Recover the amino acids of this structure.
């Protein structure tokens, strides 16, 4: 009943008053492109988050963060180009514009609300142009909000990479400034480099150790001489 009532109401509406075919094509394409744009922005933001964390983990340079930001901006631009291409395909397939390049040019002008009038649609489909402009307003608004988030995240990423790089550089310089322990310095030190007092002490220690060894050897020799020998059979 609802469908029949809708058909009856639409049958009473004059095409000159409400072009239903134009609004059906325009609104359906507008909603589809809005959902597509939202999905693309979500994927681009997630892609940026993953790559930014990878830069943090690998301690990369600040210039890598700038390259990553440029890459995300390029993804945003390509998303708008894709949507303009879809509008141009709709116009070309409906035979509203004879050449695809002219259809793309008209879609880009209407999508960006530039409004050059070199290419015109037929009189019965002229309402499609403001619908293309409305879709551009929606998608550019989404891109602006997403770009603000990416700019804030990129500024934080640049600061973190700069601080990390500064800390790592300070750590390397501190390690390079510290001298290694002189483990073998006492062994490889020349005897002439020792002061006179130190050389005198070392001579006394050497002579004292020699005398101790001699006394020990003498005591051992006396012990072995006094030991009774075993009887031979």
């Amino acid at each position: 009943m609802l469908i029949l009532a809708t058909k009856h109401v639409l049958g009473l509406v004059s095409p000159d008053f409400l072009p239903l075919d134009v609004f059906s094509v325009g609104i359906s394409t507008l909603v589809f492109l809005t959902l597509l744009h939202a999905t693309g922005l979500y994927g681009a933001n997630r892609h940026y988050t993953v790559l930014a964390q990878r830069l943090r983990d690998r301690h990369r340079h600040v210039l890598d963060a700038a390259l990553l930001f440029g890459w995300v901006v390029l993804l945003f631009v390509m998303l708008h180009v894709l949507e303009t291409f879809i509008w141009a395909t709709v116009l070309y397939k409906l035979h509203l514009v004879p050449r695809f390049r002219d259809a793309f040019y008209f879609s880009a002008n209407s999508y960006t609300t530039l409004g050059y009038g070199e290419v015109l649609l037929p009189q019965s489909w002229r309402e499609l142009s403001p619908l293309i402009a409305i879709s551009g307003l929606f998608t550019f608004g989404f891109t602006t909000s997403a770009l603000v988030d990416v700019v804030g995240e990129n500024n934080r990423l640049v600061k973190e990479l700069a601080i990390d790089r500064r800390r790592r550089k300070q750590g390397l310089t501190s390690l390079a400034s510290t001298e290694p322990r002189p483990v073998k310095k006492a062994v490889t030190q020349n005897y002439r480099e020792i002061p006179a007092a130190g050389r005198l002490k070392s001579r006394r220690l050497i002579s004292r150790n020699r005398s101790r060894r001699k006394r020990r050897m003498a005591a051992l020799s006396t012990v072995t001489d006094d030991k009774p020998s075993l009887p031979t059979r």
